[in-house]
Amino acid sequence: MSSQTHLAFASTAVGITSVIQVPTLSPGAGEVMVKVAFSAVIPLDTYMSDYGRIINGQYPVVLGFNLSGVVEAVGSGVDDLQAGDKVCAVALAGSKEKGLQERAVIQRSTCAKLPDDYSLEAAATIPDNFITAFYTLFDCLGTCSANTPILIYGAGATSGQYAVQLLALAGYKQVIATASPRHHSYLKSLGAAHVVDYSDDDMAEKILLAAGKNVQFVLDCISAEGTLKSISSVVSSDGVVAMLLPVTEGSRRVAGKDTQMWMELPVKLVGVRTLLYQQNEYLRDNLMPKILPRLLEEAIIQPNRVRLFDQGSLQDRCQEALDVVRNGQVSGEKVVVKVASM
Predict the structure, then answer these.
(1) pTM higher than 0.85, yes or no?
(2) Closest-CA residue to 160 (of 129, 182, 138)
(3) Fold of 5-126+304-338
């Protein structure tokens, strides 16, 4: 085990989180060591820290599924990155990859090189939602003609914003988005052809009018029982609905302590598990290493808005960020924690 250590924010038992010292590991074959500047906090972090979900009792577990920072070292077989490169990445597996720590060792395939002048703060919003949107739209939902209406339900969510951008970039002309009114103008600027307030009593009628018929393809970015009920009123009988797992009770994406959650869905629905995207070999080899860097270099993908936590100790910053996410106090922005100064 390494004799060097660094600080990490981890779940050490159900309901308990703290800053701890963890070993600083060297990158192995196909791996990259990153000095972490920023990391995002997402609902999955709260499920792990508050309820021990997907941890299986293996503590401590470092949190943070996104990160941005600067490469410090590369392992054998990594010849397209070098020390000093700015990168962003998503963590797929163990604690050594997670973002809420001073140094992370990540798989090269989950890492995207950033333009030299790109904001590390903004870059921390990108990986998980970009991968989710791309994987869902072009793998899980399949393909259709550019004039086929596609509904993005809850498009104001950070994953929905990337979905709208990617569909517009791919040439789709009939992207219909539902969101609260404060997100409408922004979603139109990203490429949505029609935007509907999902709180309107006549939401279904407006969606059907925009589509000209029942909708064939739907991405539900909220993925709750209540949203599925709304979607069922506009989707065609042979349509495909992709829901971002887990699906929760009620109508909110963030689940409480006693909220039922499902990781499996009925046959007519497609359940999206973003962390499995690398089972598609093409996406594994190209999505983060090649596709995202090109989109960023050409400035045709916009990062999410940032809600930054950069004051106080690392413990204070991480804890405050977790509280905001678990209490559902986020809308259309990504919660980002400053981990270390570059």
Answers:
(1) yes
(2) 129
(3) Quinone Oxidoreductase; Chain A, domain 1 (3.90.180)
